[in-house]
Amino acid sequence: MMDIDLKNENAQSFSEKLNIADKKELSAIIQNFFVEAPREKQDTLMNFANELREKYYERKVYFRALLEFSNYCKNDCYYCGLQRSNRKVNRYRLSAEEILACCKEGYSLGFRTFVLQSGEDSYYTDALLCRLVAQIKESYPDCAVTLSVGERSYSSYQQLYAAGADRYLLRHETADEVHYRKLHPSELSLQKRQECLYNLKEIGFQVGAGFMVDSPFQTYETLAADLIFLRELQPHMIGIGPFIPHADTRFAGYYKPTSHRTLVMLSLVRSMLPKVLLPATTALGSVDEKGREKGLRVGANVVMPNLSPVAHRLDYSLYDNKVSMGWEAAEYLPDLSRHLKTIGFIPDFSRGDYVDLQKKDETL
Ligand code: SAH
Fold first, then answer.
1. CATH class of the 16-348 domain in this structure
2. Alpha-carbon dihedral 163, 164, 167, 168, rounded to 10 degrees
3. CA-proximal residue: ligand 1, atom 7 (nearest)
4. What is the pLDDT of residue 256?
5. Nearest-atom index, ligand 1, CA of 211
6. 133, 258, 331, 354: most buried by Cβ count inside 10 Å?
7. What is the pLDDT, as a whole number, of residue 328?
8. What is the Rg, in whole angstroms, of the alpha carbon atoms belonging to the chain?
9. What average pLDDT is seen over the chain?
């Protein structure tokens, strides 16, 4: 078994170890931090993660305005409240005009990245989405547009990129074949999901992968497989949040989520891939009042307040008790920004690209 005594490590050497560890070694490390490691060791891990984040991003926190523009979904992922077989969802979709109005509000609040997320909704054809992306880029050329609209064809991704989309979020959900099967119906496949991620990267998007922590049937080994997949893909962004059961899914009441394991995975991922953009997710803020703050303290450097029209916020219910008020709401950005300063972070209102892709004059 690999020696994981952090007393003999510094941030850099630990990072290197994570990059060459095999699956068994990674499983042991994860298990150790989930259940056994004493407080000082947990603190050392968090300090390493922090140090590595600061090496590339200082204490900066980037903001993304999240626009959940449709909750229609043709997929039936077992864990997700928006799955097509959930009849209780009050389905909505926003028109291009409504989306543009949200962007206008977001821009004046100070956001320079818009994240357009939805279920897999065929209503938004390539033509429609491309027009929308082009309109946003034309109105706000200094902004980045991130899409998170699921699996599409190579040509669709190419067109969206050509229309001006800069980034794409598509969590891989789990990198273990058997685990993937337990979370998804047979028409979805891990291979296809991973292929989409590689396609997006090849086309030129800044790409985000990611997974839930404590999803049903997850093990130390499946989490180790997640780390290995991320290490191979080398994404620019990684979304990690706790799995939170949704009452209208088969996993209702499965597990009462906490923030601890997500915080461990955030620090391990930051340590392994120090340059990655890592959000302190809404899900993390939903299971722990201080979750977002704690996430930032263990290496996260992005927050994504909700810019969806207030009338629809509760309908985009991926899981129960999702927070969409206070600092999770785009309207409170000035408040959030002030608070971040008081706890020692630097609110950064630039586009916040991946460090190697940042233009030097961007923050001037
Ligand atoms: N349809 C898009 C966007 C999915 S929603 C896509 O396929 O990429 C964004 C993320 O929410 C999902 O990738 C999933 O990891 C997360 N999610 C879904 N259900 C969840 C739950 N019950 N608890 C926590 N996160 C959940």
1. alpha beta
2. -10
3. 150
4. 81
5. 15
6. 133
7. 87
8. 19
9. 96
